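To assess whether the prediction recovers the assembly geometry, we first specified each molecular entity separately, as shown.
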Amino acid sequence: MVGASAAGLAAVETLRREGYEGTLTLIGDEPYHPYDRPPLSKQILGGQWEPDRVPLRAPADLDALGLELRLGVAATGLDLAGRTVALADGSRVPYDGLVIATGVRPRRLPGDGGERAHVLRTLDDALALRDRLGAGRRLAVVGAGFLGAEAAAVARGLGAEVTLLEPAPVPLAPAVGERVGRMLAQAHHDHGVDLRTGVAVAEVADGGVRLTDGTLFEADEVLVAIGSVPNTDWLEGSGLTLGDGLECDEYSAAAPGVYGAGDVARWHNPLFGTAMRIEHRTNATEQGMAVARNLLRPDERRPFAPVPYFWSDQYDVRIQAHGYLRGHEEVAVVEGEPEERKFLAVYRSGDRVAGVLAVGMPPKAVRTWRQAVATRAAWRDAVGELLPEGA
Amino acid sequence: MSGESSSEGSGASSGEGKGVTMRVEVDVPKCVASGQCVMIAPDVFDQREEDGIVVLLDEQPAPELHADVRESAVVCPAAAIRVIEK
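The predicted structure of the complete assembly is given in tokenized form:
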């Protein structure tokens, strides 16, 4: 098991729970026991939680799994024919079955090596940024995706002067649609975050960030949140197919006996009929469980066909989304109004319901629409009847 | 339910019917209202109507529910469910 975060943990737990009694080695490049990442940009950055709340399992529960833990040492190479993983300390770990769950790392900007520049992926990243924030500190967040937006909201709550710099005209439009994106933009304005759209950053510079038009935008701290890069470098030359992540089939297999799970894995999701790579917390767990079962019972393998789920907290807005919203062709608000921050929107791809996104709605309504996604309900049947004018 | 996620309703097969007792704990402040637990184990978990936060219906679920409860605990995106088995 290479990767000791949510996907790797789910895989080893599933293997043990379902009867695997052999050696299980869990390899991770961070020195910590598996921990939870979503709170990093929320409760940890905001100081409501200390690091002792993020471990995914109590030490006793982890001990009970009987793992060979190799933490703080990165995997550096894979020998598919010889069935061994090479580690940074020069050792080699042999395997019969392999799960690759090495996640992603933040995409960087030129010049971001200095003290004022931050990224937010690990516990150490979150604590370093938290130490430098506070009332009156000027924070520039580069990128108004979910991570940047959540961090901006939290930093604002700490009293920092926050500017969000986003190249697109509407933040998150490809992910959630323009109307929901505009609602989120308004939430930032309402809370005193200076959201600047259509602004592209070239590099982190002395005194702030340099925009592509050459202007220096001044800031004390800079958070670079411009997406991530799958950690597949160590697999170069291994013979596995690498593209946008580790390429896997519908069983999430990359080669016989080799599976990918979590943020690093791009696999064919038969429910949506398309290849996807999902950087969401829930997917890491579900995919870790699924590949463990496929590894354990090769004769009863099942395609990995989940309804992806994510949530995001920004100020008092909690977004819940089920399905595959990216690449949607149409959005319909079927209940409430985004402007009132209480609504339910559904997303169409082709002639099917592809996703649902809700803010402040009763859970039963969300679950009902989630079921429409899970059954790939026809858009005309599900939405057409609700909106006879085709609004 | 065709095409449903492979991780739902396909609960683990071990540990059932062996006289194992199970106790469930939820860390309510951690809950993010995803509803994943309700979809997997609706007899054990529910959600508050106003904000979707978890409601524990059954602290000591019957053995036939154990596999689904374990699945809920693992899938919970907030790691807010703890299962203690004796």
